[in-house]
Amino acid sequence: MSTHKNLTIGLFGFGVVGEGIYQVLQQTPSLNARIKKVCIRHAYKKRNADADLFTTDYNGILNDPEINLVVELIDDAEEAYKIVTTAFRKKKSVVSANKKLIAEHLAELILLQQEHGVSFLYEAAVCGSIPIIRNLEEYYDNDLLQSICGIVNGSTNYILTKISEGLNYNDALLKAQQLGFAESNPALDVEGIDAANKLTILLAHAYGIVTKPQQLIHLGITRLHEADADFAREKNYEVKLTAQARKSPGGKIASFVLPQFVKEESQLFNVKNEYNGVIIESKLADKQFLYGKGAGRYPTSSAVISDISALTYDYRYEYKKLRRHEKYVLSNDYYLKVYVSFNDWAEVNKWDFEQVNEFHSTDERQYITGIIYAEKLKNADWFYDPSVSVIVLPNGIIEKENIIAKSVKKLSLQLAGVS
Ligand code: HSE
To answer: From start to end of 295-378, where are the E strands?
Structure first.
């Protein structure tokens, strides 16, 4: 006997993912989920579905008592905020893929869904087809989770892959847009903001930390310079945009989105194109790796469908880690091993580094490798200078306890010949 409940869906958005969901549900009658209405913005566009299905009246859906699930797949995060919060107040559960909406309003959305006794699922918002949120929520529901380190944005990974195959940046970005991977404002992808939004969501489910994406140190791929690619080639590294969170013994969580040089032995090395990959490290299991398509119609639809299916048995995120007795705190009290390239020494203050290991200078570009305190990096003017490229070196997070005493700083700068 099945205890699954029937779902009557009001779908918002009929774009790359919305249309994908419509198609997949047509082919999956066993789910007991039927789309009753689809709310669209532009009534005049030709759609691949029965015209009766569409409406531009979103209140019509939100006030329809038969609709018990809202699937929100629109692009505009502020409109989505209105739809989702109204749906909660009308006691409708919501499935969403809108990482920007979720990351920017997470605290409020958690409270509101609990207040109204509804469920809010968003597996598709992070890493497309990879079931990362439910794994963090259900399987890693204890204190053993040491770190997560992943490629969480498909577009930038696609662009970096194509550049390494010889395409130029603009053409690679255009292709990512044509394939439906990129955000409608691709600056969100290439500036690392989409990855910071996803990391914000991951932090809640991994460590019970509810923060804002703006609080996280983040940088995208727009600053990467040809000289950085040369450096990577020379050392047999790949450059990847990584989102990371690592627990230190005191319960402080180091977290950032930054380009990183990745060695061949890392599982992230072979994550190419629009694929995403996340390495999860736990105390007992050591490293585990989740890998799959991170963007595109059907990979994203697969996560939305999984959420819809989970709602047929009333699944909810419990956010257990938010109620943990001893809270984890986000902290920039750690060090990073970085490579920094720039055009002129005037652009970067070498005294911001605890230690300098390498310094290289050509007519075209200079670079330095060394160790910097994360909070100092965040506060350094040069970190925000568009002509300066910052890339984390392999195994680049260093806990405070492991850092060489400050007195060595001056000496190491001298040895590197940059004082
Ligand atoms: N623009 C996003 C990406 C879509 O490229 O990862 C999937 O979240």
So the answer is: 329-330, 335-342, 353-361, 366-373
Residue 407's pLDDT band, with cuts at 50, 70 and 90, is very low
As a whole number of angstroms, the distance between CA 23 and CA 383 comes to 45
Q: Distance, CA 77 to ligand 1 centroid (Å)?
A: 14
State if residue 186 touches ligand 1 by the CB under 6 angstroms criterion: no
Catalytic residue (one of 92, 100, 162, 198): 198
SS3 (DSSP) at 13: coil
Q: What is the distance between the alpha carbons of residues 278 and 7, in angstroms, rounded to a whole number?
A: 32
Please report where in the chains the tokens 């990351």 appear, as a residue.
103
- How would you classify the pairing of strands 238-247 and 145-151? antiparallel
Backbone φ and ψ for 139, nearest 5 degrees, come out as -90, -45
> pLDDT tens digit string along 46-103?
999 999 999 999 999 999 999 999 999 999 999 999 999 999 999 999 999 999 999 9
Q: Is 299 in the pocket of ligand 1 (CB under 6 A)?
A: no
